[in-house]
Write a structure and sequence with these properties.
Helices cover 73% and strands 3% of the residues. By secondary structure, it is mostly helical.
């Protein structure tokens, strides 16, 4: 149990770091007129063309996608576009309100809505890539990026993304149901780790709700600069396997150094996971850098932003887009919804207790875990790996779907209602600031 809690804690720290990047990106986009115009130019043509030619586009689409029969539409539809906005908004509300990545709800939500797993992965990567390019926050963060550290890390992450994307496509070509089952298993494991930690973290926070030392919901909870290293990073940095990559000259005399081998391996793991799960990889970069490699928090944040842009763009375009595994309508809708949701969620944190927010986040993660875990028997049954009644599979799948959307929908309604109920207070705070 302690291993689950520790790995979940690491993932939570990474999710909070990734959320900070997403919030800053959203603020950069929405507060810049040129970027807003670019976003409008991206969305408006899709709406106009979709409404005018939806039937024609649907009729022209091939029955087969990537060599296998598609389980979901890959063409524009008004209903699909609205659903994508709502899903993006729910993820954005979680990110903005809790200060931890809400991307974990996107894959369970889209797969529950009938979208094929490999399409979900490619689409989510493209959505992250589009947000990163529009935000362009890397240009304001270069001061915290160790270029040798980032470049060496990217060698591994690009390689890992290549392998992860290839495995996903290979499994899909062998059996589309196996592809969905594989992605479902990966998400069940990751959400299980994170859910255990989020639940125990909420219980601890509730007991200590009145303690002044309770960290804010958006904090990463780690050592501020990562100056004090644990035994593992000390051991790794003591292994002088040339060439050594130097970094953190601003925080320690003479800087620190670590062998390129460990950086490439860490990058490979991050890139592989990003391509498999359809995420930017930021939620695992933070704990790996700070608690495994011994990099300071400041350098980690800058390098994380750097790698997200390049890893997500390469994985989205090089491993999914060119093979037809991106649902652009969904990506556009999710981008729009998440931008709006993050703004609302971030403002609600001013009027809501942190312990309440933690409780909702724990419930959201556990709901995502239940959703994917309960969907697994049907996938294994279709693959003839297990023998179980189709009725039982259907009931379990429906329980997972309803539990997920009731909890996530309830959270979204609560945050939105809280926002409008406290609108005058929030306006007053904005006026004072």
């Amino acid at each position: 149990m302690s291993f689950f809690k520790q790995w979940g804690e690491f993932m939570m720290m990474g999710a909070r770091s990734f959320a900070k990047w997403e919030i800053e990106n959203s603020n950069t986009i929405l507060r810049d007129r040129k970027r807003l115009i670019a976003l409008g130019l991206l969305i408006v043509p899709i709406i106009i063309l979709g409404v005018a030619f939806a039937d024609e586009i649907a009729g022209a689409m091939p029955q087969f996608l990537g060599g296998k029969k598609a389980y979901s539409p890959a063409f524009y539809g008004t209903g699909i576009f609205i659903i994508s906005i709502l899903i993006g908004a729910m993820a954005g509300l979680i990110t903005g309100c809790i200060g931890a990545g809400g991307g974990f709800v996107i894959t369970p939500a889209l797969m529950s809505a009938g979208i094929k797993g490999i399409l979900v992965v490619g689409t989510d990567l493209f959505h992250i890539f589009a947000k990163a390019i529009m935000g362009s926050v890397i240009h304001r963060k270069l001061g915290n990026v160790s270029v040798p550290l980032a470049v060496t890390f990217l060698i591994g992450s690009i390689t890992g993304a290549t392998v992860g994307g290839y495995i996903n496509r290979l499994i899909y070509e062998i059996n589309p149901v196996m592809s969905d089952a594989f992605i479902t298993v990966v998400y069940s494991i990751m959400l299980g780790f994170l859910g255990i930690y989020a639940g125990t973290d909420f219980l601890r926070a509730r007991k200590a709700a009145g303690a002044a030392a309770e960290p804010e919901a958006g904090g990463h909870g780690g050592k501020e600069e990562g100056v004090e290293m644990g035994n593992l990073p000390k051991k790794l940095q003591s292994m002088k396997l040339p060439p050594m990559v130097k970094f953190d000259f601003d925080f320690t005399p003479g800087g620190r150094g670590i062998s390129w081998v460990f950086l490439v391996l860490a990058g490979f793991f991050v890139g592989f996971l990003a391509a498999i799960m359809g995420v930017g990889g930021g939620f695992v970069t933070f704990p790996i850098f700070v608690y495994v490699l011994g990099v300071s928090s400041m350098t980690t944040v800058g390098t994380d932003i750097f790698q997200i842009i390049f890893t997500a763009s390469y994985a989205a375009i090089g491993q999914y887009a060119i093979y037809g595994f991106i649902f652009y309508t969904l990506a556009t809708g999710m981008l729009l919804g998440s931008l709006l949701g993050i703004q609302v969620g971030a403002m609600v944190t001013k009027v809501v207790k942190g312990v309440t927010i933690r409780g909702f986040y724990a419930m959201a993660i556990i709901a995502g875990f239940v959703n994917r875990f309960f969907a697994l028997p049907a996938k294994l049954q279709d693959m003839e790996v297990i023998t179980i009644s189709k009725t039982v599979c259907y009931v379990l799948e429906q329980i997972g779907i309803y539990a997920f959307f009731i909890i996530i929908g309830g959270f979204a309604i609560w945050v939105t209602a809280t926002f409008f109920r406290n609108l005058r207070v929030l306006k007053g705070e904005e006026a004072k600031s």
